[in-house]
Structure formats: structure tokens, C-alpha cells
Amino acid sequence: MPNDNAGRAQTGFLTGAAVLVTGAASGIGLAVAVRCLSEGATVAALDRDGPAVDRVVAGLPVGGGDRAIAVQADVADPDQVRTAVATAGEWLGRLTAVVNVAGIGGYTGDIGQVSPAEWAHMLAVNLSGTFHVCRAALPFLRASGTGRRPSGAGRIVNVSSQYGLVGGAGSPAYSAAKAGVIGLTRAMAVDHAAEGILVNCVCPGPIDTPMLRASAGHGELAGREAARTAGRVLLGGPGRPEAVAGVIAFLLGPDAGFLTGAVLTCDGGWTAG
Questions:
Q1: Is the dihedral of CA 86, 87, 91, 95 positive or negative?
Q2: CB 116 within 8 A of CB 160
Q3: Looking at the predicted structure, is the pLDDT value of residue 171 above 90?
Q4: Confidence of residue 149 (pLDDT cuts 50, 70, 90)
Q5: Which phi and psi angles does 44 have, rounded to 5°?
Q6: 105 and 215 in contact (C-beta within 8 Å)?
Q7: Which of the chain's termini has less CB crowding within 10 Å, N or C?
């Protein structure tokens, strides 16, 4: 299992945190789980691919596996999510933070080409999946909190995309779902600030993940978008999952105690120009 944090001294600023990470079998979710563990948190790694997330937890660095549990669920299924979140909360003893990374990508064509089934599936995973996890985790976050305080014991970080902020060719369902994650984040920030639950959003740009590599194989649609956006990553790209994990770890930590409803890009300057 790749681990760019190997050899880095543990600073421990998440010691005492109990974090649920979705989409944790690969990509950004895996990097978030590893980073949280390296900072002293206990972690519930959730993914729809049960065997893959089991292998991830089994392959964690020495000691990491003692502070992590693998749980299987399809985030689009609210019943599976309720069961998985309850299992995670019971094993961790409490739940202080949730990071919603699970999602699907791919090009579907314009609205005349995307089928109603493709539209519904994209929103079910990328938007409703975030809703289901947050809804199931809310009682645990409330139980861990102590009301309004700067380092409030309740953090939610939702992962959107640069395509939640700007349009992309051939991906109306994906863009709509990711824009919805931003709106959901802001609405939850308003609703739960008084409870000490801070809700923020990260919008990655092109990141070297299995999902990005799979999307690049979508023939003409992928080629057209690649040509349209060539050179948009000002810092070169694609970025590494660990870069996004670092931003998310900051949002979970004590220095982000006065941030809620924020939407942070981690896109190498993709949306700057």
C-alpha cells in the first residue's frame, strides 16, 4: 500500500479524534485514513469494496491497524450506511469526525446523451451518499460534542470537486452532484454551528487516483475535455492524494476551529484562471 507519510514524524494533532472516512480503499480516501492515523486518530475506513478495504486496514503500518477498522457499505444505500456507521461508532467508542470522500466519476455526455438511470446513479452516490453518511453520523457527532467551542468536537469534511465550482464538458450529472455537495455543506454548517459541529468542503482538482485514470479512458469525451483544459493546473499535475489529505487533516484539527461553511480548493490553481 502506498504511504507517502512513511518516515514522517507523528505530530499527533488529531490524538483523541475518532474519524470515519468513506471511499477509503483507494485514492484520496486512503490517503486521508493514513494521514489521520499518522496524526494520532482512530479511524473507521469505509468502502463499498469490502475485500479491498479489509486489505487496506490489514496493510497499515505497524500499530496503525490497532487503531483502524474496515467497514463495508455502498453509500448510496441508506440501510447499509446506517449499519456501517453504527458499527464504526461502536468499535471506535465514539465518532468525532466524518470525511466523505466516496464518489464515482466518468463522462456521460451532455443532457441529451446522459440517460435518466446514469443521472440518478451519479447523484445517488456523489450527493445522496454524502447525505446518508452525514445523517447517520449526526447523532454520534452530537454525542461527542459539548456545544459551541473553538475546537468543537464535531467535524464534517465533504469532498466535492473543481467541477462543483465550474462546468465541465460531457459531465452534467457529475457537475450537478458535486455542486450539490457544496450547497449541502453550507446548509449543514448553518444548521449545526450552534452544536459545535463544523462542516467544510474541499474541492480537489485533477488528482492521481484510480477514478481519474478510469475517467481518462472514456474516449472522445475525455479527450475533448483534456484538450479544453490543457494547462489549467498552474502547479503542474495531476496532484497527489496526500496533498488533499493534508488539507482535510487541517480541517479536522485544532487550527481550523473558526472555520465552518468554507469551500477550499486544492487544485494546483486549476480554477484560478
A1: negative
A2: no
A3: yes
A4: very low
A5: -105, 115
A6: yes
A7: C
Residue type, 261: G
E strands present in 73-187: 97-100, 155-159
Q: Does residue 154 carry a pLDDT above 80?
A: yes
CA atoms within 13 A on the CB side of 205: 21
* Pairwise CA distance, residues 62 & 47, whole Å: 22
* Half-sphere exposure for 134 (CA within 13 Å, toward CB): 27
Q: What is the pTM of this model?
A: 0.91
**Tally of CB atoms within 10 A around 91:** 13
80 φ/ψ angles, rounded to the nearest 5 degrees: -60, -40
21 three-state secondary structure:
strand
Catalytic pick among 132, 174, 176, 188: 174
Cα separation, 95 vs 138, in Å, equals 9
Q: Count other C-beta atoms under 10 Å from residue 77's C-beta.
A: 17
Give, in degrees to the nearest 5, the angle at Cα 63 between 58 and 65.
30
- Rounded-to-integer distance, Cα 197 and Cα 69, Å: 24
Residue 163 falls in the annotated catalytic set: no
Residue identified by cell 507523528 is 10
Q: Give the residue among 51, 52, 168, 31 at the shortest CA–CA distance from 43.
A: 31
Strands 198-204 and 68-72: unpaired
User: C-alpha angle 14/8/19, rounded to 5°?
Assistant: 25
Q: Which residues, in sequence order, are bridge partners of residue 45? A: 21, 70
CA-CA-CA-CA dihedral for 79, 85, 87, 91, to nearest 10: 180
Q: How confident is the model at residue 217 (pLDDT cuts 50, 70, 90)?
A: low
Nearest C-alpha neighbor of 204 from the set 159, 172, 144: 159
Q: Looking at the predicted structure, is the pLDDT value of residue 43 above 80? A: yes
